[in-house]
Amino acid sequence: MAHTSKPRRHRSGAVLRTAVGSAPAVAVLALALTLTACNADGDAAASPGGAHTAAAEPGAGTGGTAPGSTAAGTATSAKPVASKPAAKPVGGAGGAASPAPSATAAASAAPSPACDHKMPISPDEVAVYRYTPEGGSLSLIVRYGNWGCAPADSDGAPFVTVGKETYLPMDQAAYVTATNPVVESSENQHIGVQEFLDWLEAHPNSGLVFKYHLGADGAVDRLDEVFTP
After folding, report:
1. pLDDT tens digit string along 153-193?
2. Do residues 169 and 138 make contact, with C-beta atoms less than 8 angstroms apart?
3. At 132, phi and psi to the nearest 5?
4. So where are the chain's domains?
5. Residue 91 DSSP class
């Protein structure tokens, strides 16, 4: 019995020495574990900051997008809005827009109204052909008419006679003015009644146009030649 107990005391001492000898190693291991835990805590504390930075970057352009937003949402918010293409200017070979025509140019380009071929009969203009002293009074033989349409190569509109010849009483003291071919002038000149009658006798059926005025007795008291081309 005594012999058997001795070896057991010997092993206990060995175990104690082994435990005492391993104490520094245990302390080193504990320190290592502590440092590892501290590092892990530091990494965990630093990770939210990094995640916040990564989340702030995509949210900066979208007004605060949460870190958990899906890739589809990010792609939708980042999609550019297509702008409407600008209207193509209308221009010539140089590409410059043609200026709008002014109101004056538009008015000048507008076609003139068509000439009315049905003008009314002039009430105070006649074509004079001849005269007659029959019945003891002076009368002009005339035809009434209206003004037609002026040809493109003409200086004025023609006087178009209508109806038959008729008599127009004339005062022998009437005031008469005439121009070419009665007198050599481009403007109306005052002439006497007899001078006018002499010209009519020398040039019958001339058809010169005159504007007349009737006096109180119904006879012509003024006669003015009207230019015709």
Report:
1. 888 889 999 999 999 999 999 999 999 999 999 999 999 99
2. yes
3. -150, 140
4. 1-57, 125-225
5. B
